[in-house]
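Milestone M4 deliverable, item 7.
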Amino acid sequence: MEKLHTLTEQLCSPDEEKRRLAVVGLGGYPLDQIEESLFRALGDISWRVRKEAVDILVAAATGTGAVILEEKLIDMLRSQENAGLRNSAVESLEKLGRQATHALCRHVGDDDHDVRKFIVDIMGNICDPAFVPHLIKALDDSDANVRAAAAENLGKIRDAQAIPALLQALAKNDVWLRFTILEAIGKIGKPVPMAAIVPLAKENLLKKAIYDCLGAIGDVEAVPLLVEGLKDRVKNAREAAAMGLVSLRDRLPSEIAERAVDERLWRFKGTPFVEGLLASFETSESSLRESLVKILGIIGDDRASGHLLRGCCDDRLRRHCLQAFKAMGEGGAASLVEAYPAADDDERCFIVYVCGELRYNGCVSLLSEGMLDSNARLRKASVQAAGKTGLVVFINEIAHLLEDSEPDVREGAIEALYRLVEADRVAVAKITGKLASSEVSEKRRNAAILCTALSDTDKLSLLIKDEDASVRKTAVSSLAKLKSAASVGHLVMALVDEDPDVRIAAAGALGDIGGDDVLEPLLLALKDDDPWVKCAALKSLGNLRNDAALPAIVELFESAEGLVLISVLDTVAQIGGDKGTALVEMALENHDEEVVKAAINILSLNGDGWIHAYRDKLLSHPHWDVRSSFVKAMAARMGEKALPYLRSALETESDESVKGQIVELMDRFF
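Output delivered:
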């Protein structure tokens, strides 16, 4: 008791840290011995001291004594002179959660309106549906702040049974209450009759709340009101209408959205109202900018081009801006071309990018200029756009950029030529021939890429024997994309290439082509010295799903380790059958925890017989990660039937993270 007396005295120390540590020290005593000291600490001038007191008080609040404690905490809400004490009482009651439900319900009608307001807010933060009837009753409270708080906290709890009472309370001539009710209805997210909301739109102060609400719960009936809201002179109302309209439109089936929303928005084109939407575009709020981009794209007004162009600089908006330009058609692209001379380097890159994505042929002069520009990014964007738009007039310029000093530009030129094969096969084939005979390995590698588009297996069969390993690997990958049975012989030869990367590519390519002819070569690749080649061959064998491969895979299982062994398990799982399942079960005995985890993951996709056979061994496995994987698999396969085993595992588990996982899994079944 002497130590407790010392701790109590330290609560009066002028040193904040001493007072905090004194509160921490009180945590080891029964609540009835430290209650008064903790109450004093709840009103301390230091938030750090108050926080420790709250945590200790809540942790100690159990049993019948807790009821008295809750009453005392509620009484602290009456303190006028100590805001810290009131805040600590609020925090304590919120942390007590449902344990404090009865006490809070008893005082929701307290004589003190400030106390009622505190209690209503606490109820909302605890979020217990048991509070809903009491909060509904508080909608008729004599105090305006309590009424508004009741509506707000019904929204937090999001219980649909509150909707009728909230709609009834909308009839009260209280603007702030109506505003809060509309927000609450939006949060609850259940549809309400439009007749209850539309009349309120005459009240300017409620428009934003109405548009937000309709965006969350409205259906096609709400579209006219939201579209009209886009014309509102008040900026925040107009922006709320924009976000609400897009949110509603995203919920509608596409054919209804086009008829109900898009046809109305088309009428905005050329009107002054577009200027109002554009004025809001400079906001930093990404969700609003995204909504405006979508709306401006549907409207299709050329005045939006500059704003959409700047929006392209934002990674989150770029896709939506591009869709907007597509919706605007050639008018939008033409306006970008007009803006090009005055644009900065970044904007010029986006302009040619958009022209390429839109396949806009009116950008020839821009691309011609861009491919000669000193800015490498613009040269790359321009040559890529030339390929996308199918402008064969630029074949020579594109070929010239294959000599560019920047690798990215050269890569863009190859991409463009690849796309232009259909438009001018002869010209691209001629360029490919020159590349294939070049002394520069990068050019021969690019030739192999273009051979895919040209379907030139003859040239690839030569490049697959190139002196440079990177060329051979690219040629192998190109043959894989062509999926020609005639290529199998060349790929089989590549399986004995001196470079392991080429062999890996060849093994993968044979799996992509498939057929009976690739089985034996892939089985031979299982004897390769490089583990990655073995893994590639195993993956391809899995894709074949031919059980004739099982004997060789079983043989590999005996000597394989690590990644190769995991690949073996994946492959036999793909092939299927009892023999493969037995092999995976054997892997549960492996010394490598990663192999065991892989086996658990594979087996968990099928029955649960293996769980009972290996349960004790896996629950006592030396690696926590294996135990974690197994308890998840057991819960997923067995459902509630796993509860007894989870309880037993919890008693013996030593790792805190696995314990927490077991508790979480058990909670799902209650």
